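Input (structure):
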């Protein structure tokens, strides 16, 4: 038993170290080396006792057979120790599987981050610097201030087609490129597609500390003041025009203006409302 423990423990540790260090490749190398070492030992013992002649006593023959048998057993134990240690090492090395978020939790997270334009970050969708993080209680003091301008985003035909598929609005002015080009100079984006870009473009514009969840509350006014032709680039300019306590949180009202690159008239002006809640 003592010999078994002395042989198995180093083998177990060897496999554990090899797998934890180099993963499956390390375990494979350790197992091969253990197999080679065991085979060499067995071959040595066999060669040593195979030379026993007819004059050997029954006791010597029995001892030789038992020695080789034990060698096979210890070799198997050695290899098993390396493999078991390696599997344990792989378990330690393997990173934990990412937790799938609860659908409600994911929806609230999206609202608190993108759909509301309120996040714990400090950069918007375009990567430009925005306002420093503020406390929820300090939001009323920012009313009347412009909180950010996003980077430009190209409105592609692929995006328009995907929006048409999602909403069922396949009017030819949006998706029939040939006819739209012939009759109105090219396809145009859906008005509600332009409006739907606000959550993405407003990400990080007004970072608020301690926000745990948020909801969209609606819109006071939405106007589509100019059409967005496919291939044009748009951006969001956002201004906080209201902040007041409501239902245990803070209700925010933003004036969102979607501008078109190279044009004076914006594509959309919307007053959106949301409520954010702290911890």
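Output (sequence):
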């Amino acid at each position: 038993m003592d010999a078994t423990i002395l042989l198995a423990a180093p083998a177990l540790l060897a496999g554990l170290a090899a797998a934890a260090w180099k993963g499956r490749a390390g375990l494979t190398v350790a197992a091969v080396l253990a197999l080679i070492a065991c085979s060499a030992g067995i071959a040595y013992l066999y060669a040593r006792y195979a030379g026993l002649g007819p004059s050997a006593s029954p006791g010597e023959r029995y001892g030789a057979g038992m020695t080789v048998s034990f060698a096979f057993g210890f070799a198997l134990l050695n290899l098993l120790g390396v493999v078991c240690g390696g599997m344990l090492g792989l378990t330690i090395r393997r990173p934990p599987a990412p937790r799938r978020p609860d659908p409600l939790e994911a929806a609230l997270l999206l609202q608190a981050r993108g759909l509301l334009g309120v996040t714990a970050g400090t950069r918007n969708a375009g990567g430009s610097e925005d306002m420093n993080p503020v406390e929820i209680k300090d939001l009323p003091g920012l009313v009347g201030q412009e909180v950010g301008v996003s980077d430009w985003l190209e409105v592609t035909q692929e995006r328009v087609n995907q929006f048409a598929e999602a909403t069922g609005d396949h009017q030819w002015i949006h998706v029939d490129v040939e006819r739209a080009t012939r009759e109105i100079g090219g396809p145009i984006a859906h008005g509600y597609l332009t409006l739907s870009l606000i959550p993405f473009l407003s990400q990080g514009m007004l970072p608020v500390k301690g926000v745990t969840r948020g909801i969209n509350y609606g819109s006071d006014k939405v106007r589509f003041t100019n059409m967005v032709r496919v291939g044009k680039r748009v951006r969001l300019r956002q201004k906080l025009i209201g902040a007041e306590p409501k239902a245990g949180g803070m209700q925010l009202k933003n004036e969102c203006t979607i501008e078109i690159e190279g044009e004076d008239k914006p594509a959309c002006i919307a007053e959106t409302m949301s409520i954010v809640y702290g911890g």
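Notes: The chain has eight helices and six strands. The first helix runs from residue 2 to 50.
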